[in-house]
Amino acid sequence: MDARRADAFAFSQERTAAESELISFASTRPARRVALVGNYVPRKCGIATFTADLTEQLARFRPEIGVEVWALDDADDRLDYEGVTGTIDRADPGDYARAADAINASAVDAVWLQHEFGIFGGDDGAMVCDFIDRIAAPLIVTCHTVLTEPSANQRRILEHLVERASRIMVMSRRSRDLLIANYNAPAPSVEVIEHGAPDRPFGREEEFKARRGLSGRAVLTTFGLLGPGKGIERVIEALPAIRERHPEVLYRIVGATHPKLVARDGESYREGLKACAERLGVADAIEWDESFVETDELLDQLEACDIYLTPYPGLQQSTSGTLSYAVALGKAVISTPYVHARELLADGVGILIEPGSTEAIANAVCRLLDDPIELAAMKARAYARGRETIWPRFAAASASLIDHAVARSAQPAPRVRPSFHAVRTMSDRTGMFQHSIGIVPDRQHGYCLDDNVRALMLVNLAEGLDPRERQSLSMTYASFIQDAWNPDVQAFRNFMRFDRGWCEEQGSEDSNGRAIWALGRTALDSPDADIRAWANRLYDTALPSIARSGSPRTIAFVMLGAAAMLRARPHSPSADALAAGADVLERLLGGARRPDWAWFEAVLGYDNPRLPQALIEAGQTLGRPEWTALGLETLAWIAERQTAAPGHFRPIGSETFGREYAQMPFDQQPLEAQAAIEAALSAWRATGDEQWRVHGTAAWRWFFGANDRGVVLADLATGRCRDGITPRGANENCGAESILAFQLGHYSMLALAPDIAADSAKTPSGMRVEDRNRDGQRPLAYT
């Protein structure tokens, strides 16, 4: 026995210390729960076998990871699955939605999807796209095939998977390179984990040959579902030349015909191969096993062979499970250079031959059978290479992949005031910029009314500002709002270019409604009497035309402004606008309601909690308890939909907008967390119910990592906030809307959670500040 073979044999007798450490470490690590989605046994295909292997080996070597299997199924071919959590009818879009909802409700830590174009419903398996769009947990995707020349639809599907995935597993370096170069996959997210393989002793060919009555034979084997893509014709055509030099040779073809081929053509393909063998006079040198063998039986049959053949004509195959098994069992392998074979058989582990060449197959087989020493050495090299892929190592790599994908633990919600620095750096003498590139203000998109009215509301409340700076900033934002008013059309403009030119004569209804809201809040909250007087005048001028809007959110914004104005000026004309708005929302709720949809519209949009908040404020301000009750009922409904099964806040994602009776988890935006906090504050003030403190605090903690991706969005030291959460993590930009949502959310938390308020008068450095409003009291929270 040569040195390499001896080393390999010794390796097989005991686990390495590293493997033992990995297994024992499992009991000390926190539990994870993962939903596996893909084909599953007893379906007869490689993906089903892989999913079953993954499930079995994680349970064996990583028991701290709980696995829940969702098997793809066919309505016309119902299988008897064992140990699965659920099934998905691959051709039914509604079943994908149902399964996604169930997986989200189960609060798994990650969803691990096995992808191959042929296993999902729709053209090229397109139904997978809507399914993953509905998944909230971090998504892991195993790309079993990565095409170098995909169709347009195949490219679209795979790029969508790449965009959604937190982590991508491939089984070859070539596949990783293709995903990065051709499909825009981020390099850090793509991990190579070679196909796992069994750990069996080395060199037992004669024992297993004897069990099958094959002693004294040189055994070649090809295994897999039979079909034209296996290249078996070429091996049969090579047998006359091989048998001329080695009459003892036997070629074993193991595997049932592919079910789809049987359904279309019956067994005509297999019969054609047999006829070819008869014609060439080698039928007696071939043994057929026409069954679909289970894994243990497959391994026994592989142990009985000397040379394993994978003469596939197609070279794009990323993965072959049986190739991995053969190498791990220490078989000499002859293969065409498809992707997996090129990598696994490098450095003399196996022999690569040109595809479609009968002569190349014959020469390679005879070369090994002519030289028993070289054959034994190649087997030893294969066995040594296979130690890198055995199940304990595969399970450890899979566990690491899950850890990389799963969201990090949230930080405690801090009790210090965020710095005002971010607001300053996003503002100039004109107003507050809309967008940023990273943390750098983006002048190209200029300014908008929406952000400047929010900025004014923040300046009214912000603690720690020098009175001169507060006045200066208030004047800047108020001036922007004043200039936005277009008396010719009795409406506010919204978008302004960097050169201070307006982009339209009239802005959106919602931006106009927010302006009324800001003016009402400013009349109530500003510590500057002159700014309050200005807000009162412009409010009275603009309210009549803007209050006529029919947009539900515009109505809600106007109502919130009117409620604030009534507290500032109890005899203002705002009561009519507040009551009219509440009447409209009440009618909308009656028209859109159905048993499972207690909402004002058939779709969910942005700022959803503002609608019930407006009803609560109207009921409390005008003494109409029925409106308060409706507001509390609908706020509870939307709060339930914005609470994930583990209990963290999961805002309605912007991808939900416009989809009737649907909810998609991404992209999540800070505006939604702010709205949830402030609506919860209104509900708590109306009821004193502790559930609203709990819900508001969950929305606040969303900024600090208690979210679906475990990413921290807010930075107390600078006052910045990232623009939201995508399937991959945080959107790194820090636009005005996000900064203001975070900062305004903080001031509402002061009112909602006194335990946080106690420390919130401290700056991040710990310095105490004194900053009171015009009545000598802490400013009212932003509601």
TrEMBL record:
Residues 768-777 have a biased composition (Basic and acidic residues). GO terms for molecular function: transferase activity. Keywords: Transferase. Residues 46-196 form the Glycosyltransferase subfamily 4-like N-terminal domain. Residues 761-783 are annotated as: Disordered. Residues 206-384 form the Glycosyl transferase family domain. InterPro entries: 6-hairpin_glycosidase_sf (IPR008928), Glyco_trans_1 (IPR001296), Glyco_trans_4-like_N (IPR028098). This is Glycosyl transferase.
